[in-house]
Amino acid sequence: MTELFILLLAACLLTGSSAVQTTPNQTAHSLRPESSNTTRIEAGRAFVNGIHIYYEVHGSHDGTPLVLLHGGGSTIDSNFGRVLPFLARTRRVIALDEQGHGRTSDRDQPFTFEDSADDVAGLLRELKVSQADLLGFSNGASVALQVAIRHPQLVRKLVFASSFTKREGAQPQVWGFIKQADIANMPQALKDAFLAVNPDSQKLKTMHDKDAARMAGFRDVPDAAVRGVRAPTLIITGDRDVARLEHAIELSRLFPDARLLVLPSGHGDYLAEASSAPADTDYAEITARLLERFLSEPQPHR
């Protein structure tokens, strides 16, 4: 069971409903509206820190690009396929598959948020991007936070979505589910999305196991490191998400320049993410508009 599925189970306990899953024959391509194909202007692989990182660039707009960082067990398509076209209407969007996920190769070492952050920084340098806005969802939010901590000059604005910085920030059920991690419990939609772009079942299992191990060894981010983030930050959480609402409120006071957005949502519903919501693209479009409002606000003078 990947970190994302673990979080979905917790969300189901909170909402009293089961997660909506796509049918077994649904591919990653069907998660992505046809309009998103018209927004893509580039796709490729960059050799960074010993791995080949798959990336896509959408939208031809000038200005600061938005980088999308997916959650555990996910790919660009399964996490952002439905919201990406709306985001690309107003800005350039760079999306990537993390180490060992989807179309990105793996290295012979565990997944860590710090290494993934260094991979993101290396990719941006390869693409000659001097500064970007980051949107991280779930595990991707932990990666985005580490980019802001380790490479602050690269981050203009940060969106920390549906995640937590300390173990007590998660709903208590999460850690019990992590102990039971098994690929047999991984949502079929995520398996299909991975195999649609990387038809190697052993690599799928390796990705799952490394994601589960990363979450089992989750370490709190020191409050001092969070206070040191200088990028304006938008914290997004669902009112029935897997992070405790009280923790999201705490984070909104811990980041030096933070806003808090609480949506009527479980884990990932507001992105129309493949495993946690039906194809509610209306909700994805609303979320994209809220994100654009935050990202387009003038920077405060320092």
In short:
With about 300 residues, the protein is an alpha/beta fold. It has helices at about 5-15, 35-40, 75-80, 85, 115-125, 140-150, 175-180, 190-195, 200-215, 225, 245-255, 280-295, and strands spanning about 40-50, 50-60, 65-70, 95, 130-135, 155-160, 235-240, 260-265. It has one domain: Alpha/Beta hydrolase fold, catalytic domain (Rossmann fold, 3-Layer(aba) Sandwich).
Radius of gyration: 17 Å
CA-based shape = globular
Output the number of helix runs. 12
How many structural domains in the coordinates?
A: 1
Q: Can you tell me the CATH superfamily?
A: Alpha/Beta hydrolase fold, catalytic domain
| Beta-strand percentage range | 15-25%
> What is the end-to-end distance?
44 Å
Write the layout of secondary structure elements.
Elements: H1 3-15, H2 34-39, E1 40-48, E2 51-58, E3 66-69, H3 76-80, H4 84-87, E4 93-96, H5 113-126, E5 132-137, H6 139-150, E6 155-161, H7 173-179, H8 188-197, H9 201-216, H10 223-227, E7 233-238, H11 245-254, E8 258-263, H12 281-296
Parallel strand pairs: 3-4, 3-5, 5-6, 6-7, 7-8
Antiparallel strand pairs: 1-2, 2-4
What does this structure look like?
The protein is an alpha/beta fold and 302 residues long. The chain has a single domain (3-296), classed as Rossmann fold (3-Layer(aba) Sandwich). It contains 12 helices and 8 strands. It has helices spanning 3-15, 34-39, 76-80, 84-87, 113-126, 139-150, 173-179, 188-197, 201-216, 223-227, 245-254, 281-296; strands spanning 40-48, 51-58, 66-69, 93-96, 132-137, 155-161, 233-238, 258-263. An 8-stranded mixed sheet has the order 1-2-4-3-5-6-7-8, sandwiched between helices. Helix 11 links the parallel strand 7 and strand 8.
